[in-house]
Design a protein that fits this description.
By secondary structure, the protein is α/β, with parallel strands linked by helices. The chain contains 12 helices and 13 strands. The protein has 2 domains: about 120 residues, 2-Layer Sandwich (Enolase-like, domain 1); about 190 residues, TIM Barrel. Helices cover about 40% and strands about 20% of the residues.
Length: about 325
C-alpha cells in the first residue's frame, strides 16, 4: 500500500466569521486526509491555525531540513507510521521541533493510525497496545460566563445534559481576586456538591497569586487546577506544585515528546494534558510512557472537532493512569 496524496482542508463555522472577540478555538479547524492506492483514506486533524497547518502540509521543498510534509511521504507505505514520523521531524528541524511543524505532523500521524485501523480491521486503541479502559467519564469543557451568576447557569445546563463534571476556563479569570472567587463559587453552585468542578485559569497569574488561589479554591472542592501560570514560567510551576493543595495540570501547549518531557521534569505537575492533535498518537504514547513512569497522571486536552475527540478517546483508553476525558461542548465546524 502506498500514499498517493495528502490534502489539508480548512473548516470554519458557516454562520459567522472567525472573531478575535471569540476566545474559543473551536470556531475553525483543519482536517488532513491521507489517500492510498488501495482506496483507504485516513483522516486526522490539528489543534492549531488551520491556514498555517495547510501551508506546512502543502509547502514545496525549501532545503534538506525544511520541506512541506505531503511531498515527503507521497509514495511511502502508510503503515510505516514510526519511520514516517521520524522522517517528517528529521526533515524539518530548521522549521522548529516544538510548534507548528509538530502540529501539522500530528494531523498526518492521526490519519496514518486511522489507515492502520481500517487496514487491520482493529480499533486504534488495540493497535496502541490494548485498552485499560472500556469506558471513561467525560467532562464538559466550556468557557466561564462574565460573572458568577452566568457561570452558575452554564454549569446547571451541562449537569442537566448528563455530565457529572464540568470545566470552566479562561477569561475573565485573573481580573481580580473578587471576580476569581465569584466565578469559582458560581461554578460550584451550578454543579451542586455531587459533581466535579475543574478550573482552567488560562495562564493568568504569577506563582504567588496561583498559590493563594489554589488555597482559596480548596473550599470549592476543585478536582484539579489547570494552567494557572504562563507556559514558559517553569520555575513558577515548580514553586506552585511543591505547595499547592490542589493537583496542578498543564501541558496542552507542548508539542512532541522532547517539549513535554522537559516541561514535566522541571515543573513538577501532577497531571499532564496531552493534546493528541498537537503531538500525534505516536509521540503522545511516548510522552505518556514517560509521564506514567514518573508518577504523572495522563489526560487529554481537547477543544475542537470530533476527529480529535475520537483520537483522544482511543489514546486515553490505552493509558493506565487516564481517569477522565475532556470533551468540548462548544459548537464546532
Amino acid at each position: 500500500m502506498k500514499i498517493t496524496r495528502v490534502e489539508a482542508i480548512e473548516l470554519r463555522l458557516e454562520e459567522k466569521e472567525v472573531s478575535e472577540a471569540k476566545y474559543s478555538s473551536a470556531q475553525d479547524a483543519v482536517v488532513v486526509k491521507v489517500h492510498t492506492d488501495e482506496g483507504i483514506v485516513g483522516i486526522g486533524d490539528s489543534y492549531s491555525s488551520p491556514h498555517v497547518v495547510k501551508a506546512m502540509v502543502e509547502a514545496p521543498l525549501s532545503g534538506a531540513s525544511a520541506s512541506g510534509l505531503a511531498r515527503l511521504i507521497t509514495g511511502m507505505d502508510p503503515l510505516d507510521i514510526r519511520p514516517i514520523n521520524h522522517l517528517l521531524q528529521a526533515r524539518n528541524i530548521r522549521l522548529g521541533r516544538r510548534g507548528i511543524v509538530c502540529h501539522a505532523i500530528a494531523a498526518i500521524d492521526i490519519a496514518l493510525w486511522d489507515i492502520a485501523g481500517k487496514y487491520y480491521n482493529q480499533p486504534v486503541y488495540q493497535l496502541l497496545g490494548g485498552a485499560f479502559h472500556k469506558k471513561l467519564r467525560a467532562y464538559a469543557s466550556i468557557l466561564f460566563g462574565p460573572d458568577g451568576k452566568t457561570t452558575c447557569e452554564i454549569g446547571k445546563r451541562w449537569v442537566n445534559e448528563g455530565f457529572t463534571a464540568v470545566k470552566f476556563g479562561w477569561t475573565p479569570m485573573g481580573q481580580s481576586e473578587k471576580l476569581d472567587l465569584e466565578l469559582v463559587e458560581g461554578g460550584r453552585r451550578g454543579l451542586g456538591e455531587k459533581n466535579d468542578l475543574i478550573i482552567d485559569a488560562g495562564c493568568c497569574w504569577d506563582a504567588n497569586t496561583a498559590i493563594k488561589r489554589a488555597q482559596q479554591f480548596q473550599d470549592y472542592n476543585v478536582l484539579f487546577l489547570e494552567e494557572p501560570l504562563n507556559r514558559e514560567n517553569v520555575e513558577g510551576y515548580h514553586k506552585l506544585t511543591s505547595v499547592s493543595p490542589l493537583p496542578i495540570a498543564a501541558g496542552e501547549g507542548e508539542a512532541g515528546r522532547f517539549s513535554h518531557q522537559s516541561f514535566m521534569e522541571r515543573s513538577g505537575i501532577n497531571i499532564v494534558q496531552i493534546d493528541v492533535e498537537n503531538t500525534g498518537l505516536t509521540e503522545a504514547c511516548r510522552v505518556a510512557d514517560f509521564a506514567e513512569d514518573h508518577g504523572v497522571k495522563v489526560v487529554n486536552h481537547f477543544y475542537t472537532n470530533t476527529i480529535g475527540s475520537a483520537a483522544g478517546l482511543h489514546f486515553l483508553a490505552s493509558r493506565q493512569s487516564a481517569f477522565i476525558m475532556e470533551y468540548c461542548v462548544e459548537e464546532t465546524p
